[in-house]
Request: fold
Amino acid sequence: MKVRDIISSIEEVAPLSYQESYDNAGLIVGDYKQEVHGILICLDVIESVVEEAITKGANLIIAHHPIVFKGLKRFNGSNYVERTVMMAIKNNIAIYAAHTNIDSVRGGVSEKICDLIGLKNKKVLSPLDEDLKKLVTFVPSADAEKVRESIFKAGAGSIGNYDACSFNSEGTGSFRGGEDTNPHVGEKGKLHFEKEERIETIFPKHLKGKVIGALLDAHPYEEVAYDIYSLDNTNPQVGLGMVGELEKEENAIEFLKRIKDIFGCGCIRHTNITKDKIRKVAVCGGSGSFLLRKAIASKADIFVTGDFKYHEFFDAEDKLIIADIGHYESEQFTRDIFYEIVTKKLPNFAVHISEINSNPINYL
Reply:
């Protein structure tokens, strides 16, 4: 099993195209063709984690946070980033990170928080814009079902909790093949009219190659007519943060105590308790203050995230409760997400979850 095979299983769930523009997700150290003997999963790659990988015989580290976030100009061991990268290279250990891309997908970091808290009716808090494409193609009526099944299998036609979604209309296509053609229907050199179906469906843009490949494989014509349109619609299945509802209302103080226990928080920094009862909860793993307006607009009673600055707490304006549970605390279960993805594909492979607590923040 090679590095490429392992990371492809993660990127099928969280494509690199979903990372934010400032991010540095992907293979940071190592060779895609390198043979993998063992995997270590962690939140942060630091020197002690690389040492742990060496001890456990793991030569691929899968992390949430990229060890290289800004450009490195020197490798002389002057800081922990350089030392960590140098140690990994010396020991032939590959380092891969899935960061904001795993934040942005269903089943990712924010949904994991929702599930731990016990939320239902979950929705993406800030859906991704301009991610959807529309495919329109024209198929002989007798072959339409085969083509639909092929493009659906490739990932087209999913809208929310529905799949195999398409619009189909009947019409007549015309064509005339040249001397070098071998038409599926009709005769070369003669104008032919064929009953066809116009099939319309949508897909996320990262699946374009896969969907078009499936279309071309299943379509009977030598020359396949199809159009791709870019849509302004948001993709409700992709984006940062989530919002959901508790099964039953909870007392605000008791809710805060419960999440403190779930996430093992040293403390929870929060705004005034402006809501006695909590029902609707917005969440974001890591640093979520940029989503505060979205959380307020969603009518959430409380926003659970990390890394709020002092003045940002004022921005709640008593419209909801901000609960800052800490960056590490909100993302620590990302390791479980990676473990589930990798072991599902490789059930008998040596996959370890790091035992190192990489949280740089301590509480007295």
Notes: The radius of gyration is 25 Å.
